[in-house]
Predict the structure.
Amino acid sequence: MPESAVKNPLVRDFSPSELSRIVEMAWEDRTPFEAIEFNFGLNESAVISLMRQQVKARSFRLWRKRVTSRKTKHQSLRSPDVSRGYCPTQYKR
């Protein structure tokens, strides 16, 4: 079977718009991995694998460095005062 016929198991179940949203949520500082898992069923390691495949190598390295130092990306490390996944002014109407 040619390599082009083999689909990535992480990517095949998502539409392009869903993949875009997962990458966007992964980049957002205040969106925890638990929110991505709740919405899309991908745990932290699956998100890391997906990001490795979906973004350029340099972008992936920058993202990993950024995520590693963020307490807001892990629900259990967050302050109990933060009960939302985004800033109130993020989605303006």
Observations:
- The longest helix spans residues 16-27.
- The chain has one domain: 8-74.
- The chain is about 45% helix and 0% strand.
- The radius of gyration is 15 Å.
